Hints:
By secondary structure, this protein is of the alpha+beta class. The protein has helices at residues 12-21, 48-59, 93-107, 135-141; strands spanning 2-8, 29-30, 38-46, 66-78, 81-90, 121-126, 145-151, 153-162, 165-175. The strands form two sheets. It has a five-stranded antiparallel sheet.
Amino acid sequence: MHRLFVGIDPPFDVKDALMEAMGGIIGARWQSEDQLHLTLRFLGERSFREADDIAEALAGVRTRSVAIGIAGVGLFDRRGRPNQLWARVSPPQDATRLHRKVDRALLRIGIPGETRAFLPHITLARFSSGSGPLDDFMVRHGDLKIPTYTADEFCLYESRLTSAGAEYTIVERYPFAQESLFGPSFL
């Protein structure tokens, strides 16, 4: 069995800027540099055969490059208690377009589409009930900005849960289409 997800691996300068913003929240479980990514679709536990089918289906996703920047931070909560801190991807349109294409490719091989609303983000930290306070971090980094860059690929990741946290390995890379002299090769 493989625990899989589809995402975009940011370049080192983006990861470094995110790492510099991290810290200052008691009890937060901060992501490591290797864990920073933009999730396009979580797939969960999959058999070896399903993993092969997924990898093949993703190879058929055709799209142009994706513009990604960071504009602010936010919180997800569970039952009114913050459980995750994230950096907002902006502009969201390109990542959302790619998310939809990935969903359609997976639907063709029998994997149902995502039912939750897609919010492009990069997770920075996770919290337990004893974590906090968050107010100072939100004041200092609420307007976090990282200039837009152009991603040139998306990836299929495998996630292994260990006692030290999740370890992510890129299983396959899928380059985006290159524009020709005659304009985009497809839209």
